Structure prediction request, 169 residues.
Amino acid sequence: MPTHITLVQGDITEQDVDAVVNAANSSLLGGGGVDGAIHRKGGPDILAECRKLRASHYGSGLPTGQAVATTAGRLPARWVIHTVGPVWSRQEDRSELLASCHRESLRVARELGARTVAFPAISTGVYRWPLDDAARIAVRTLREEGEGFTELRLVLFDQRSYDAFQAAL
Ligand code: ADP
Prediction:
C-alpha cells in the first residue's frame, strides 16, 4: 500500500497523532522554533525525560541524523520523537543526514507502535536549509521508508513552507 502522506498548515503541538517529531538540537535540553513550542506546550515531563536520556545514553549529545523518543507530556500526541537535523552547509552535502532524520524517526515510531506521525520541516528554520531542497528530501524519504503507517503528516508553520512541500509532493 502506498504511504499516506498528508500536508497541513499549522502548529505541530496541536496535532492529534500518535507521535510528533521534534526538530531538536543535540543537547536535548530545548531550544527555539518547534523545539521551544513542544516543550512549552508539552510541559516539564518531556524535558525531564530528555535529561534522563542525556544522562544514560547521550552525554555528549544526540548525534545529528539520529532520533529518540520521550513521552509527549500534555500534548495531544502520545510520544515526541526528537531528532537532530543537520545545519545547512554550502561546502558539504549533508542531505544524507537530513534523510536520516526522517528515516530514523520512522524507525523509532515503528518500534513504539505509532500509526500516525507528524513531521515539521526539519532543518529549515534556525538551521537554514533551503526550503525546496529540504521538502524534496523529506517527501522522498517518507515515500521510500514510510511503508505501513496509516498517516504521515507534514505540518508546515507558514504558507511559504506549505507551498514548498506541496510542490515536492
Ligand atoms: P531547525 O533548527 O531544525 O531549523 P526550527 O524549529 O528552527 O528547526 O525550524 C523548523 C521549521 O519549523 C521552520 O520552518 C519553522 O517555521 C517551523 N516551526 C516553528 N514552530 C513550529 C510549530 N509550532 N509547529 C510547526 N512548525 C513550526
